[in-house]
Amino acid sequence: MKFPEPVTHEFGCFLHITDLNFYFAVVNYFSHNVDDPYNHYIKIGHRNFKFFSKQGGLYNPKTKKLAFEYMFHWKDETGASKCSYSIKPLFGAGTKTKNGKVLNLPTVGTQIHIESSYIDLDEHFDIIFEIMDFLGASRFQDKIDRSRSTIYQMARHVRYHERHEHDMVAMLQAIEQESSMLGDSKLVKTLKSGKYDMYKLDNPDFSVCNLRTEWQHSVKSYRITNFLDRVPEDPLRHPKLEVFLKSNTKLNPSISEFLSLKRDLDKLLYSLISFLNQPLEYVSDNYFNAESVFDHRHDLPEWDYKNQSHQSQHIDLGENMRAVKALAYIALQSEGCADFRDIQEGTEIPERSLWRYINYWKSEGYLDTVREHCTKVFFKTRSIWEASKQPLIDFCSAFHIGFKKIFGEVFIDSGVIRQYRERAKNLRIIKSKKSAKKSQDQEPIIVDSYRHADKLRKELNELGVHRKIGVRSSHNTMRYSRVFS
């Protein structure tokens, strides 16, 4: 299958230089050669960089004053391609900040913060080496520690014709619908005149479409802000499909892993395009060349996004009813996700048995787990959760498997036989994040008299159910208010 060469859009990283003297070399050049600190430019290659300084946020332990940071900034005529280099000192352990905090920086050295658009890492190294030569500090070129230098931002994209936008967004919607039920993803969707200004999936679970990536990524289909003002012939009227690194301070790749990250992003981008299962028309612009096409010879995952919503889910409940009880408890939670300890407390299943049931449902492909502050258990896809939630509630309620459904709310049944007046002690309501809003949206319970309404309201209060009660209008009730909250 043929694909165009994606272009690197946004890129950001922190270069770590193991010698603090490079920072002092920059300070020395600035203090002796810059007459106007607000309007000084230096020529590096074909780019004219503005060279200036600003007060930083770290105290110099020797002078007890805030250390300055030195900036090199450039952008092209359109303002789309730009780069910025911020040179900062690293004073090591015990460094104080202007906010009064103490940073235990692991090493002493110099940090170069790189932010750019449409400039790749190889070109950044060329520019930095030329800057070092210009400052008379070429001796520090071999002091860059690639293992400690980390990439926190990288985006790769292609620009495609707007006639394919409907299919592209439909494919992304299918991923969002089937994505992880953990609840830590984010969807951004904005339309202008029926066209998508932005459709962004932040931190989705690509495993639902048979994709495995080395790092966590996000994806978006988007346009320039004023695309409606552009003529049809203008390439900036057409959308871009972009995949980008989901930054995680502890898991960000190092500079030495740059090529692996680039390959990981490109594979994700090609796989998403291949899911459309149709030839895509690409649009060239000032930075993306649609005619630079190559033949991709590696296998890509297959996924039919159009048939996902029509697949029926069949769950074999097995023979152990306590395993069903655990599954039902998770299904009752907001977004099909619950903490392990909450499941154990709510179902009163022993810990070892509960782990055995959860591992069984994981092996069947219905549940998954993740360890954060505590272990979270969740349905792998939204379609499985939505298909199983109501049948599990009805099944457990009908066969008295730990739950009862009363007045639209679900309770945990203790199974203990008590006197009728103490029946509320048998039931403990299951509350989720959306339970309050859900109860407000439900239809009120209609009764024939105020006496019946008072009795029912008292019973609901004992159970902890929040429902509106309405009294049917008649000649006996017309002179009073007909709704109790």
TrEMBL record:
Residues 4-291 form the DUF7845 domain. This is DUF7845 domain-containing protein.
